[in-house]
Amino acid sequence: MVTKEREIADVQAQMSQEGFWDNQDQANKIMQQLKALKNIVEPYTDYVKRVVEGQQFLSLADSDEEMAKQLADEALAIKNGIDALELEAMLSGPFDRSNALLSINAGAGGTESCDWASMLMRMYSRYADIKGYKCEVIDILHGDEAGIKNVTLRMEGDKAYGYLKAEKGVHRLVRISPFDSNKRRHTSFASVEVIPEVEDDIDIAIDPGDLRIDVFRASGPGGQSVNTTDSAVRITHLPSGVVAQSQKERSQLQNKAQAMKVLRARLYEIKLREQEAAMNKEAGDKQKIEWGSQIRSYVLHPYLMVKDHRSGVETGNAQKVLDGDIESFIEGYLKTKPEDRDKKLKEKQTDI
User: Are strands 232-237 and 211-216 parallel, antiparallel or unpaired?
Assistant: First the structure.
């Protein structure tokens, strides 16, 4: 906490300098940084004060049953509060406070996987509701019969990327297929990609000559057009092959701007991965995210179980998870050391 208190003092010193408010955008970012620091330091200071006050009443607890109960409740409340603060403190990465762009892609398996992708979309939409995030669909491609082939969601809210980065990877579903007349058990896969929404001032150069911009009509289920104008925009970055598109707005210009934001975020993510790969070149190969190397399994038959293969967190209440209650998995991921996550994923994953 001493370090964070020092950071608060440094930020407040910046704010007292002449001309601080001349750059409104920069000033607002610094104000947000100050607010984030205070949101950790001030509750922690309050918990320390409550602990000291509670210790003063310990001697009375031996003879006063009601006092003992109150102290026990207070101790539990303080513990839970400090646990929550520790989790907040873990989200200190450069983009952890950013909005998130979450993409879901159905794996091989046709309608089964498309339906699973739509179930994941619903799960993350419900999670956004629980967290108080604004969730909007930027782009979506529906399946031929049911579900979705892929979708990109924009999650807007404090620490959206910090939390949702835990969901990056392959998700596996085991169930009795509702599309199989013989009621056989099927396994489906879908991949989840999560990247931070980067600011315009992030250093990523994009040459307009490297872009191919296509316009088309936004489509709904079954490929039907949802409007009569070519307002949807697809932007392809030719050197890398990265594609970004948006069809949520009725204006072509708005969709182009949104697609460019997604493209910038994806190109910046690639840049960061390349830098990380260069730094870790001698550290050995890391496991790639691919079909069969799932980070989490959701079993709906012959029993109910959801298990995260990186942290070991599991629950038998699968429906609650699919309704958006994924906080325990996210916390488990954040609290598990990276080397322990890698070790668990490298171990043979058997059916659960």
Answer: antiparallel
Whether the Cβ atoms of residue 107 and residue 191 lie closer than 8 Å to each other: yes
**Looking at residue 302, what DSSP letter applies?**
S
Domain ranges across the chain? 2-90, 100-197+295-346, 208-281
Residue 331 has pLDDT above 90, yes or no: yes
Nearest to residue 125, comparing CAs of 324, 342, 298, 325?
Answer: 324
N-term to C-term CA, the chain:
41
Residue 176, token pair as written in the block:
């009795």
Q: Are 298 and 174 in contact (CB under 8 A)?
A: yes
For residue 239, how far is the Cα from the chain centroid?
Answer: 28
| Amino acid at site 307 | K
Question: Which residue from 58, 52, 41, 44 is spatially nearest to 4, judged by alpha carbons?
Answer: 41
CATH architecture of 208-281: 2-Layer Sandwich (3.30)
pTM greater than 0.70: yes
In this structure, which topology does domain 100-197+295-346 adopt according to CATH?
A: Alpha-Beta Plaits (3.30.70)
pLDDT, one tens digit per residue, over 260-303 is 999 999 998 898 888 777 655 533 433 443 455 799 999 999 99
Cα–Cα dist 166/266, whole Å: 17
Q: Whole-angstrom Cα distance, residue 196 to residue 118?
A: 22
CB-based contact 332:311 (threshold 8 Å): yes
Q: In whole angstroms, give the CA distance from residue 109 to residue 225.
A: 25
- Within 8 A by CB and 6+ apart from 94, the residues are none
The structure tokens 């603060």 sit at 85
Reading the block at residue 268, the tokens are 């910046």
User: Residue 82: its pLDDT value, please?
Assistant: 86
pLDDT digits (tens, 9 = 90+) for 183-209: 889 999 999 999 999 876 677 889 999
User: Is the model more confident about 84 or about 254?
Assistant: 254
From CA 116, how far away is CA 112, in angstroms rounded? 6
**DSSP letter for each residue of 191-257:** EEEEEE---TTSS----GGGEEEEEE--B-GGG-BSSSS--EEEEEETTTTEEEEE-SSSSHHHHHH
CA distance 112 to 185: 11
